[in-house]
Amino acid sequence: MLKKLGPKPYLFPMPVLLIATYDENKRVDVMTAAWGGVYGEEKLAVDLDPHHKTFANIKLNKAFTISIADIPHLKEADYLGIYSANRYPDKFDRSGLVAAPSEIVSAPVLTEFPITFECELEEIVEEEKDAHVIGRIRNTLADEKLFDESGKIDPTRIQAFVFDTFQNGYYAIGEKVGNAFCDGNEIAKKE
Amino acid sequence: MLKKLGPKPYLFPMPVLLIATYDENKRVDVMTAAWGGVYGEEKLAVDLDPHHKTFANIKLNKAFTISIADIPHLKEADYLGIYSANRYPDKFDRSGLVAAPSEIVSAPVLTEFPITFECELEEIVEEEKDAHVIGRIRNTLADEKLFDESGKIDPTRIQAFVFDTFQNGYYAIGEKVGNAFCDGNEIAKKE
User: Fold this and answer.
1) pLDDT at residue number B188
2) Per-residue confidence (pLDDT) for residue B128, from 0 to 100
3) pLDDT at A187
4) Using the beta-carbon criterion (under 8 Å), do B5 and A141 form an inter-chain contact?
5) What b/e sequence results for A45-63 when a residue is b if at least 16 CB atoms lie within 10 Å of its CB, and e otherwise?
6) Phi and psi angles of residue A187, each rounded to the nearest 5 degrees, phi first
7) How far is CA A62 from the centre of its chain?
8) CA A162/CA B163 separation, integer angstroms
């Protein structure tokens, strides 16, 4: 039986994304977001509360980076989602994380994270309660340790985790359960 | 060391989403997509190739549903991502899956899946190669079996899985590794 819940954004799994920007004093700010996704071959979209410092920073610099949070930095990632840079301007310094300037866009790169997208602001769609920030990926950075012998990224090496919007849990990526563009062929052959 | 890969949409974890629509003959069509995310409190965005039958169907009906794929239907979900309804109009029938009309929007609901978003088409942003389809969630359906004793959805009961864009693998959701809006407090107290 399906229960009707009204309109709820209960997508799952949700990624845990770190959005890094510079403020007006070139100070690093980072916030955590789950409401985002791929918005085309070279674009990402994230949904932000326009009151966030991050939003002002993105407007200012027309750039940001998005890093994929990993389990070794879970506490830091969570911290960056709890505290506001509007109230705590030294928020990032207190995280103990490391940032270096992007070589491509006017935004910091969190160098300890496995994958980072260096994005130029493409468009902001502002609505009453939220703002959709669309970034054009100018470059993707990946830690060399992620690559396996075949030269491809091994997703288990990312050590990414999932945010659960229902009970506010974080979950690891589990065991392999199938092969995309392959397992479905069995179904097609039927009949 | 971070390697520069050029612009790549290497977001991870990626969800596995089933987009269900009716065609011009009210025949059910379903395709699988990974490029999507929450686009606000009551909106979802998915990125589609405009050549997909699904795209024509969404334009026709101004509606679609999105279901979260689960491990018990992994093969079916994969199949729906491999085969095109443009070439195989009986694609959905061959999947063996069950659909019922949504009570709210002009689209089918895949009743065997754990969570389904019944969406009205809000906007299509067409670009050269892809189309961003933004849906307004009119209602969210969740299987009653997902709810735990506290009345909340237990994310492990969804049995969702993750798509890996690097090597085309599917991965289960693993063990719990933390608590959001909680674990980060340790960091904040430092100094």
Assistant:
1) 73
2) 87
3) 87
4) yes
5) bbbbebebbbbbbbeebeb
6) -65, -45
7) 17
8) 13
Residues of chain B with pLDDT under 70: 189-191
E strand or H helix that includes residue B60: helix B53-61
The owner of tokens 């039986």 is A1
Domains and CATH numbers, chain B: 14-188 (2.30.110.10)
- Computed over its alpha carbons, how large is the radius of gyration of chain A? 18
Determine the pLDDT at residue A75.
97
Enumerate residue ranges in chain A where pLDDT < 50. Answer: none
Contact A132 B39 (CB under 8 A): yes
* Dihedral sign for Cα atoms in the order B89, B93, B98, B101: positive
- Name the β-bridge partners of B169: A179, B164
Q: Which ipTM did the prediction report?
A: 0.94
Q: Would you call A174 and B173 a contact, using CB atoms and an 8 Å cutoff?
A: yes
Residue in chain A closest to B118 (alpha carbons) equals A7
Q: Residue A189's CB: how many other CB atoms inside 10 A?
A: 9
Amino acid at A6: G
Q: Per the structure block, which two tokens stand in for A133?
A: 């920030």
Does residue B76 belong to the interface with chain A, where contact is any CB pair within 8 Å? yes
